[in-house]
Amino acid sequence: MKMKKYFITSLFVGTLLVASGLTAQKKNKDNVSDDLLRVKPKLVVGVVVDQMRYDYLTRFYDQFSDDGFKRLVEEGFNCKNNHFNYAPTSTGPGHTSVYTGTSPSVHGIIGNNWYDKETDTSVYCASDDTYSSVGTTANAGKMSPHRMTVTTITDELRLHTQMQGKTIAIALKDRGAVLPGGHTANAAYWFHGADEGKWITSTFYMDQLPKWVSDFNASGKAQSYKREWNTLRDISEYKESGTDNNLFEGKFDGENATSFPHKPAELLDKTKSFDIIKATPFGNSLTTDFAIEALKQERLGTDDITDFLAVSFSSTDYVGHMFGVNSKEIQDTYLRLDEDIARLFKALDKNVGEGEYTLFLTADHGAVEVPTYLKSEKIPSGYVDTAANKKRLNEFLQYKYGTVDIVKNYSNDQIFLDHKIVKNLDLSLAEVQVEIAQEVLGYDAIDRVYTANQMWSNNYTSGIPYILQNGYNQKRSGDVLIVLKPGYISYSSTGSTHGSPQIYDTHAPLLFYGKGVKAGSTINRTEIPDIAPTISALLGISFPNGTTGKPITEVLK
């Protein structure tokens, strides 16, 4: 009897223990699920500011409002030592690297344009003649991401949500929308200026524009930005930039001076080309207007399935190219962009909810100071005489090999050789690469030269060779890689440019903000391919399939 009573008691206690254990397990699982839900944002917003140097953030900081860049810095996480880990540093590779988590050596976008060895022609990073324009009869919509060989963070989010999460990508430049949107975007929109001033897309995404896009195009928004460009504030407050009228800046057609106010006929005439809007800060404002409309009309971030809004501000690049990084125009453009970012924040707070979204902001490349300005301050700099260098190289080729045709093309500071001619001349390709590299190294403004054989044979881990190797794609890149001296460019004598492996082109801002993000900063080196895996880790989804970057652990809660 005692034995029976003991057995029943033991069974009861055991059952209670098992039940409590199962309850604890269920609570643990519920806690994990709750934690994931607490971290998972309703919307991710990726912001790329074209040609934004890191020092713009610090130079103009005191004049920014509390609701734009300062909100990002003071409430978000600032990666102060963030760099592109490859060259060429240009828009196509930049946007692709941000969203794929890797560099051109893997994702294949080795420039905005490049010489294609298979077709013996120059190709554009986003062009695709197999698709047609939507929203215009012009060819400006014949685009797709087909040259990008890997997935993006936006693709992985779409796959993770069984294609239920939306991806919308927006930029003035087609490549600034097409490449971030990835292969699975619901839509990518870009601005077609010319005499139309419309947001357009490609049949890669859809057969006709949504009604809200057509309504926006008919609203007269673009026309409203065809107006005089004067400074946002009194120009006497613009102490963080050079004199207004100088020899280092370009100017609009029809203008006699480089100074404010800018009122060329093309900007004031609402019937003429809308492309000029791109080279004013109003292009960023138009982009913001359209992005906010997309946010509302597509109902992004309004349910528990995470959506993605990719926005690129392109006008900063056009202004930088025309006026240079030290111009009043650049300062005014960033003060106005600060207001646009504040407007975007306000719309996100209202439509998605403060604390319900995650946002990152970075650039697609930096920019060099105008060499003529640097020279005026006795800093070594200058311009490459490309025509003279080509003439000298042709003389060498004719003398050495009996033909100039051994060089097939010159693209993105790379020399492409005709491998068939090299073989027919019974020459060693590796030796020809070295001989041409040694010749070019002696030319003015050339800092160093590397060969494709070096890129194939070594595993560089630092410095310029590391940057070049990350930009070198074995199938698409050239035979000889050229690096100009710091401060030297192949460009006009006014305005700024980019593309090099030098630090002024690689150092770019990187700010994270919102749900799942710690407030703080780091001076540790981070790299552009780290962005996509960081967002993937925050969302708990797969990394893009070519990822070589690493999650920035300091960012994540």
Automatic annotation (TrEMBL):
PANTHER family: BIS(5'-ADENOSYL)-TRIPHOSPHATASE (PTHR10151:SF120), ECTONUCLEOTIDE PYROPHOSPHATASE/PHOSPHODIESTERASE (PTHR10151). Substrate binds at N112, K173, D174, R175. The active site is at T91. SUPFAM superfamilies: Alkaline phosphatase-like. Residues 1-24 form the signal peptide. It comes from Maribacter litoralis. Gene3D superfamilies: 3.30.1360.150, Alkaline Phosphatase, subunit A. Keywords: Metal-binding, Phosphoprotein, Signal. It holds the Pfam family Phosphodiest. One of its GO terms (molecular function) is alkaline phosphatase activity. This is Calcium-transporting ATPase. InterPro entries: Alkaline_phosphatase_core_sf, Alkaline_phosphatase_prok, Phosphodiest/P_Trfase. The keyword Phosphoprotein applies.
